[in-house]
Design goal:
This protein is an all-alpha fold. It has a domain at about 5-60: Orthogonal Bundle (Helicase, Ruva Protein, domain 3), CATH 1.10.8. Helix content is about 65%, strand content about 0%. It has helices at about 5-15, 25-35, 40-50, 60, 70-90. The radius of gyration is 27 Å and the shape is rod-shaped. The chain starts with a helix and ends in a 9-residue tail after the last helix. The model has no long low-confidence stretch (mean pLDDT about 90).
Length: about 100
């Protein structure tokens, strides 16, 4: 999120809650806290908060954290594909003669 977007978030809070002041210190702190978050998701969460609460939100109440990608699941799927390809290749090869017959 850009600092201009954080400023928009704070101005929205200020418009909804008359006692919430936008100061330089608050802008810097909130910018630092919201830096890695998606603006649209935080803004949507803020709107939900405004509809349901009579007090301004804290950073924690409107924060939206991205869930980390599950690389283990991707590795398992790749392993299954490789195994299926190997089995298909082996089925198409002629069987070696049995030396014990």
């Amino acid at each position: 999120m850009e600092i201009e977007q954080v400023e928009q978030i704070l101005n929205t809070i200020n418009a909804a809650y008359s006692r919430f002041e936008v100061t330089d210190d608050r802008l810097m702190l909130w910018s630092e806290m919201l830096l890695d978050m998606d603006y649209d998701k935080v803004n949507a969460r803020l709107k939900q908060h405004i509809k349901a609460n009579k007090f301004p939100p804290s950073v924690a109440e409107i924060s939206v954290f991205e869930t980390p990608k599950n690389e283990h699941l991707e590795k398992v799927k790749q392993w299954e594909r490789e195994g299926a390809e190997r089995i298909a290749r082996e089925r198409n090869q002629p069987k070696p003669p049995n030396p014990f017959k």
